[in-house]
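Moderator note: this is an archived Q&A kept for reference. The question asked for a predicted structure of one protein chain; the sequence and the answer are reproduced below.
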Amino acid sequence: MKEKKIFDAITDIRDEYIEEARTARFQRKTAGWKKWTAIVACAVMFMGIGGTLLLQDLLPFGGNTGSGGAGHDEGSVFMSYAGPVFPLTLSQEDDTITAIRNISYDFSLPNEDSLHIWGASVKDSYILNNYSSEEKTIKAIYPFAGSFDALKKLTPIITVNGQELSPTLYAGGYSGKFTGIHGVDDPDGSSNILQLDSWEGYKTLLQDGTYQSQAFAPYPVLSQQVTVYTFTDFKAPMEYEAATQAISFTIDPDKTTILTYGFEGGEFGAEGFRRYSYFVPNENRSRNQLKLLVVIGDDIVDYALQGYKNGACERGNELEGVSATVIRKEETLSRVMMEIIDNFFEQYGDGNSLAVSQEMFLGAVTEFIYQYGLLSESVRDRYQYGILEDILLETKSLQRVFYLEFQVMVPPHENVFITADMHKEPSFDFACSGSDRIGIQGYDMVTRLGSNLQFDGLTAELTSTDNIEILDQNYGFDLSQAITKVELDPMIEHYYLEIRPVEQ
């Protein structure tokens, strides 16, 4: 029997930890059955101020683990990588427009506990110069690393000549593509997602321009007519806290595709047998009430409903008195997904509303499904079970590059001042992980990656440095000598800074 582990999004486990555990490789077992079962608690963890204890095998280790200014050309490899600050670019290259850039890090922002600095306020400033004899109206593009989950916090504020703009937001895809880590595929022949765990990962993603072009392309549409089975009016004996209901049927996998939402377990058997199950919700069981079975292609027939005492849907574990009303309807897949997205953010939004339009998030989900899900020509192994929560969680939480586009008028032989103000979270190692670099924060910037601008000058500066010490860098700052502003070489691709807060 081959096992497939998934995670119950009801837990309070932070998304990055869910991702670390969920993408772990599981040993394959040879048999004709495929089975996955929901588990509510997947790891033992201890939450405390500034620290989380995770099982050691859930955390990625590697790269330099030293601290204290060991000194190396590319900076440390952190367990959680926040991505670099990217340079401004133009929608169309123009050799008469050049720029002078200054990036400033302000470390005066205290963490919630008021004891440590966590993150920096970054001001990425540009002076655009127009060397032509005519006024230029250009479209400027400012890229930034982030996720839908953290978009409200991380989106830069764009000003032109001191006036705040409302730029148009575009979202890049889910790491752009699947690829083998360091070019090595998994033993089963599948490939991993391009790892955005260093600036080099972003370089691989962005350097040929394809990722940005795709970000500005229209989203695909889920126009398929589907059959939807909605489960309501749940009943189960109160004394069985884990009472479960399962629906079973047989399909032709070549003609029918099944997507699920709100289900917590299932089995894939020989000759197209399918069984999907959920823990029965009621007023005492805090579970998602929305249960949908979405059928693409030929409809299912002769399905059977059966109750069980718990999630083990096995002979001898049956339970009487478990029931639900099943409503069948036909709808377009896009409308079904809009209903699911609404419910998903009610259930798992951590109190945060969707930071973009529902249509934009649906577009990102749709793109994901067509690229990697069951509507892909080469579905990835971990999405073959059609669990929509997997797709939605990953679309919401995983790192990507966003783009802010805005129009700028540059008079001939004059300057325009553009500023991107943002909160920049640090790269770091997880507390209680065993790393000797706990408390060290990393900040990266790239000088040319993804940009078609010519830079006539590049400088960097630090402000509010009283509460930090620099452990490693290649900028050239020297706090002991009050050197807090430096000139940089635009031909050096990557600059890094590693600091540690110091208590006063």
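Archived answer notes: The helical segments are 15-22, 151-154, 199-206, 210-215, 333-348, 358-372, 388-397.
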